[in-house]
Amino acid sequence: MSDKRKSAERAGRRGEIFAAFFLRLKGYRILERRYRNYHGEIDVIAQRGRAVIFIEVKHRRNLNDGLDSVTEFQTGRIMDAAEVYMNALIDRRPDMLNYETRFDIIVTGAKWWPVHYPDAWRG
Questions:
Q1: Which of 3, 47, 57, 98 could form an SS bridge with 43, CB 3.0 to 4.6 Å?
Q2: How far is CA 57 from the centre of its chain?
Q3: How many Å apart are CA 82 and CA 49, to the nearest integer?
Q4: How does pLDDT run across 30-67, given as a tens digit for each residue?
Q5: CB 90: neighbour CB atoms within 10 A?
Q6: Is 107 exposed, middle or buried (0-12, 13-18, 19+ CB in 10 A)?
Q7: Which DSSP string corresponds to 38-72?
Q8: Domains along the chain with CATH numbers
């Protein structure tokens, strides 16, 4: 792996940590970080009230690059991974059957607070 790629990976992980901290400050409960299954990876899974939120975190130089980097293919993989997660969660916690699910984006950068886009796309 190249030095540039390693640096980008480290920055992305720091962005995920910062995003999770930011969400906690906003009253979210973090359920998972870097959740993986055979469909893909979800950066952060959180709960707030009766909602389970699946969050894609992008660390970029500017907000537009962060938003533009979330592709339709990627959102599809995240939604598929989220469905697997919710099915397993409901098996363990049947009371969560009627919880809302939501897909958010958080864009982080080196020079600003994370910017949270709730309900960025629909499943």
A1: 57
A2: 5
A3: 18
A4: 999 999 999 999 999 999 999 999 999 999 888 878 88
A5: 14
A6: buried
A7: TTEEEEEEEEETTEEEEEEEEE-SSHHHHHHT--H
A8: 3-121 (3.40.1350.10)
